């Protein structure tokens, strides 16, 4: 018996089937028709391909030319707005420098006006050293207090102005930053679009970037793009005008403050000059009166000496008269007579005693007058010393300090 493998081999080598002649003819004709149809289809495809190739080539060239045109138009738009922004940036930058210079002037003014304020306050402190009646609330005191008030008010105004100027400077710099950022973006866009315009089919570095095809959802429209630059320009112009106005205000305030301080300094100096002249005149009059009092003291001392001498001169005549009366009182008996001599002796003693009493009264009055003159002398000397002290304070101390005051209009 045959094995199963041998049976399978026997089936493989079976003879092929046999076809009839019509079948053979039909098959050949079918192959001819199929080849003809395939060839005709290929001819049509080649013709269509040539047409599409030519059409797509024209379309691609037209599209690229249109893109080049639009890129050039875009470059012109970007360049135009960049120049507009750049021009506005130059104006804002110049205004920043100008406002910075005005801020520096305010800083210098604030620093400079510290010294006049200190001098005014020191003058007030020095004038507290006046003595007695000279510690008066005079015009100098009033003007010095007003000068302190004016200076403090000026500094407060300058500090407020400085804060406003610094805030304006911050806004200027903010506007400048926005313009610089806009310019930087536009320059970058110019470079990129210029590179795109320069790219040709034979340029090096070309490559497929399928992921770059499409419109970014975060991109802005041309109107929005233009509006952003326009908004930056308008804001920059607004801040430039505000800054120019601020500079004008600062300049006016600096001038006004300097004028006010200079005017008040002049008022104080005039008041000090008048007060010094008034005090000097008062001191001179006091010294004149002192000289008269000193002369009167000397005269009164001479008068007292004369009165004392006159009283002393009456002592001996009185002794003589009283001794005579005593001696005559020893007359015996009827000899004790009230004769004219007796009456005259009694009258002489009374006259001498009356003269001594009158002289003594004048002596007491003269001594009282001398004491009064000496008190007036001390009062005048003390008052002259007070005036000298006041003159030293007002003329030397305050005058010396105020001589160094310099008011500048920064």
From TrEMBL:
It holds the Pfam family Tektin. GO terms for biological process: cilium assembly; cilium movement involved in cell motility. It is found in: Cytoplasm, Cytoskeleton, Cilium axoneme; Cytoplasm, Cytoskeleton, Flagellum axoneme. InterPro entries: Tektin-like, Tektins. Residues 276-310 form a coiled coil. One of its GO terms (cellular component) is axoneme. Its main location: cytoplasm. Keywords: Cell projection, Cilium, Coiled coil, Cytoplasm, Cytoskeleton, Flagellum. It comes from the Eukaryota. Residues 1-27 are annotated as: Disordered. Belongs to the tektin family. Microtubule inner protein (MIP) part of the dynein-decorated doublet microtubules (DMTs) in cilia and flagellar axoneme. Forms filamentous polymers in the walls of ciliary and flagellar microtubules. This is Tektin. It comes from Macrostomum lignano.
